[in-house]
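Marked as duplicate of an earlier ticket. Keeping the data here for the record.
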Amino acid sequence: MRGSESMLYPCLKGFATAQKARWRRGPSSCVAMRARLDSMYLWLAVLFLGLVGALQPLPPTRWHRNQPAVGAYSWRDGPKIIYIDREFAKLRDSEGLTLIPPLASEFASIFLQDITAVLGGNWTLQEVDNLPASGIVLGPMRGNTGQLSYENGKASKEGYELEITSDGVYIGGSGARGMFWGTRTFLQELLIADRSPLSLGHTIDAPAYVTRGFMLDAGRKWYSKDFLKDLCTYGSFFKLSEFHYHSSDNYPLNRGRNETWTEVFSHFSLYPETNTELQGIIQRKNETLSRADFEEFQSHCVQRGVTVIPEIEAPGHALAITKWKPELALAKKDLLNLTHPDAIPTVKAIWTEFLPWFQTKEVHIGADEYDAELADDYINFVNEMRKFVEETSGKQIRIWGTHEPSEDLRIHKDIIVQHWQYGQSDPIQLQNDNYQLINSEDWWAYMSLKNDHSPILPATYPQFYNNTRTMNFANVPGWQWNPALFNPVNTSQQLEPYASVNKGAILAAWNDNGADATTQLEAYYAMRDGIAVMAARAWSGARGVNISAEDLAGSIALLASKAPGQNLDRRMSLPQIQDSNAQVLQWTRTRSTPFNISLSKDSYGPPYTLTLNVSSNFELSGPDTTLSLVTAPSNTTNSTSKSLIFTTADNFPYPLRSVSIDDGHDPGHPGRIWMNQSSSTHQAVSMDLPAVIRLETDVVNGTRVWVNNQFVGRFEVFIYGGRNTLFSWSQMALVAPLNEIRGGVDGLVLEAGVGGGRPGGNDSGAITFSNGTGRRSEKEAGFYRVAVSIVLCLFFL
């Protein structure tokens, strides 16, 4: 429906063209009338943009619009050239966190790729000595750059100005990154306008905080290099500046699967190449990043304004180390015994291997949730590692806030503390003790991917980022969170917005439920909305523009789905469909069709409906998943029952299981079916052929299945609850594999949505959950724009 903005443009322009053709044949006095018509056309375009432009860029900006609001900028009218000042193109921002800061010209090259993706056509980039008076121009901030500072008063190289005139666009940065952030705002304005002319105006903007980041737990689940790069691109579109990469961890020892501690899942995501003895910490080499991989990941991110902050966890969450060297473990086997003479040298050896990989001025050593009774050992370890890392590499370290009640020792003041929970650290006390700190308060920042932590308190972390806690901090309606706000209980206990010790904020997505509890893409689904919302508030701080609550769902639905340079929604290989139930792909087997056939359509992400006409066993494969129908195990030799299985790219199988159509719709626990409160059997479903199999997938309900129009179940995963209580089954939202068909699929139809008016579809009984799917809000906004377009066109025609 977003195409409605562009519907009015040709409507009005066609009317103007027809009238001018008539009036040209009339008296010369009509010249004035034609001029007034031109003005009216531009005025109507601007008026229309005002009517449909309720959607906000994220972060929002404060525009100074031309008064009176006459005129508009149309990118169609000028050359498809981006001009950059030759001297400015050589600029690097050396004061940021990265050790490999890009040139302004490199940022401009990314902008070139992105504007081509958004607008189409053959755009080019030119370095020039003299900036033209028209077109899209990149260069330095004009005028006083001293006004561009963080909220604590420190000068910022991330500020920018964006001016839109009828002749063109000027994007100027106080630094190379500032110019790049300005291009993000411009691209978002283009997307909101949907190829229509842009309103004229001028904005000057800078972030309130230097640290605006997201953390992904890659220690309990493997994530591919390409996924990490795409996620970095996505975060950058909303002006996030850091990607906290949690590279090592283990499945919790207080849950199921812990009969033998040496068999509990642990992971170390980086593969040692120099000190081969360290390869003992690796259990799955195929699920690691090489140095070349990691360099590519870092370089990709930094070219989009994002610095990767790597974390190697110790002395807690260290099962990867203690499995390799059991003698280093305490009684709780994922804790290092820091009094063992080889414990700290082992950790130093790991950091010696990887410090040369890390192109950043700050690294994270973890230091999370250690035994409080061993506080002195813990503090000695942290301080020793600070000294080692600084002397070895010149880098500063971060740690998680951890309760360490020592009466004799103190954490070194050069260490940055990432606060995550009261009881572990106190932000006010950290400020009083003059520690630099980062806000990752779990009440607003944390997600537990797939299931929350029930019954663990104080925070049962949501499975999707909780936008409500950001938009209504401390449950106060309309009090929008910013990085100075930590305490949701005692609301008087916050930092001042200008506190010099507060670096900013990082949200966190944790894989406490295990590697098989989610697909890689489900981590994105959980953070998708949250990255946009948190980035907006971390950028704006207390001084900036608030998010428009009523327009938020529509803004996210548009901007998240159109963020250039990535394909996390898995929609790029097929035509973009605006109607939520439109047919995207149809294929039918003929007599001449080979048994195995290539569709070459990659994957298609939720929400979607995939209907298959099946006559025998088959395999439908793609880059992310494989869907197979195989003969079900049976005690009889002539069994013809079939079992449907989804397998992910990281080789986790999910058989179709029988569940009640009424189960899994608890709004407080999306997709979760409790073991003790369910009529579902969760037995593998067997089916007979031929059959029509319909799969409906959305990120909240997961992938649910109908066979011959009868609901039979869903693909799901068993999850052990916190402290081995409240066991449950949870949904898997699996993308449709569309590369190759092998075997007995006789026909295939893919639709861009779920339900489709069919009885019992995922729209029936589905819960309303804004963090999961925002597309219906976008559709509603589209209907509004279409209505405005029709009314205006009919009125003037």
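See parent ticket for discussion. The mean pLDDT is 88.
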